[in-house]
Design a protein that fits this description.
418 residues; alpha/beta; 12 strands
């Protein structure tokens, strides 16, 4: 791959891919950063940048970094950034020839950094990805090469309120497709409760939440105006028209959508693994089921979570130690502990089995992750942010009634193709 300075400078225009990660499925949504070391590779020190400012130097995560450094015979200098800030910092560091040795970054950003010449491929850095589930690894692939390995994954599913369903006479096991889900929502509404809440806001969060229904219809992001895509948008639009979903979804973030569910009035909420702690203290019994596909089965939901990558270094001899650090951070034992801390599902089937054995309640999430796919998969790479923007624009147009679902998606496809 050509890694000229010109290409790296051109990468600045690609920083819009940050939209693909901000506020969706990342563990660190905090607006502050906590720096625990320098940002330059020097001497016997190896630098690690991560998007986990919520973990300070005394945290289990920071201690794991130190342990991996000690095993590799080097000192770790760690810097933690907010997720959205990290991408811009990584691009700037690459332009200045001062990249960290190991960079942990949100998965939709990997293809941008790779195409900008910031990252080495696993062929170059020798990171072993053979045990990783292919659907999760795909988020870090671009141009036929793999750039990094996932540290874990999160995704979307449907939380449900057991008491609300019981009072409405709904057996959650009967919900297998869109028709049976819609019928269940109608029963809930008839019982005096509310149906389903989700986020359809005009940002990446809206696209992120719509994707399971979009993909679950059989639609593809390269054809936003397909009949399948229109059926998915019509589903959401009809729910709002029929009062099965509230008008508030138009402005809901994933946080405000969760707050609605936490009132105990709703039967369902589409949300992610990162709400598990909140679910456990919601004050009512809940369950989780994967988002159903249009005609049945589990719909592919988008993956969140980060990749551990190795940026390009002038001194290529550093890659050997970087490989050791990545291998340590993503080993089976360390992956289990880290993913438990982050409320992630592990990226390898072997560790997923350990998670399920330790907490059977994670099985629906493991099933959802097994069916999930990366937003930049299908070799979309840096095309995804533009497609996503048009997708969330179509959601807003259809849900506000300014355009029909088909007209909204036709306009989106035309704009995305320009």
């Amino acid at each position: 791959m050509n890694r000229s300075t010109g290409r790296r400078l051109a990468a600045a225009s690609l920083a819009a891919v940050v939209l693909a990660s901000a506020g969706t499925a990342c563990s660190s949504s905090a607006g502050t950063s906590a720096a625990d070391g320098g940002s330059a590779s020097a001497g016997g020190a190896y630098t690690v940048w991560d998007p986990y400012p919520q973990f300070d130097g005394a945290s289990a995560w920071a201690k794991l970094l130190d342990t991996c450094g000690a095993q590799a015979g080097v000192q770790i200098k760690r810097t933690a950034f907010d997720t959205s800030d990290l991408t811009n910092k990584a691009l700037l560091a690459a332009q200045q020839g001062n990249s960290p040795d190991v960079l942990i970054v949100d998965n939709p950003v990997v293809s941008t950094l790779a195409q900008a010449g910031v990252l080495t491929s696993t062929k170059e850095n020798k990171v072993d990805t053979s045990a990783v589930s292919p659907n999760l690894l795909a988020a870090g692939q671009s141009g036929g090469e793999t750039f990094g390995t996932p540290i874990g994954a999160n995704t979307l599913a449907l939380y449900y309120n057991k008491a609300v369903l019981t009072s409405a006479g709904v057996d959650v096991a009967s919900i297998k497709d869109w028709a049976s889900l819609t019928a269940a929502l109608a029963k809930v509404k008839a019982s005096g409760k509310k149906g389903i809440t989700f986020s359809a806001i005009g940002t990446e969060e809206g696209s992120f939440q719509f994707l399971p229904w979009f993909w679950g219809s059989g639609a593809q992001l390269t054809h936003l105006d397909s009949a399948q895509a229109a059926s998915a948008l019509s589903l959401w639009t009809d729910w709002v028209k029929q009062g099965l979903a509230p008008n508030s979804v138009i402005n809901n973030t994933q946080t405000t959508s969760w707050q609605e569910f936490a009132t105990g009035e709703f039967a369902f909420a589409e949300n992610g693994t990162w709400q598990l702690a909140n679910a456990k203290k919601a004050g009512f019994e809940y369950g989780v089921v994967p988002v159903p596909g249009m005609t049945g089965g589990t719909a592919p939901a988008p993956t969140g979570g980060e990749f551990v990558t190795v940026p390009v270094q002038k001194k290529t001899g550093r890659y050997g130690v970087s490989d050791k650090l990545v291998s340590c951070l993503t080993s089976a034992d360390n992956s289990l502990a880290t993913d438990t801390t982050l409320s992630y599902i592990a990226p390898t089937p072997a560790v997923q089995d350990k998670q399920a054995a330790a907490d059977p309640g994670l099985k629906p999430w493991i099933d959802a992750v097994k069916a999930a796919k990366g937003r930049t998969s299908d070799d979309l790479g840096t095309k995804y942010p533009k497609i996503s923007e048009q997708l969330w624009t179509s959601l807003q147009a259809a849900l506000t009634g300014s355009k029909s679902p088909q007209a909204a998606l036709s306009a989106a496809q035309s704009a995305a193709a320009r």
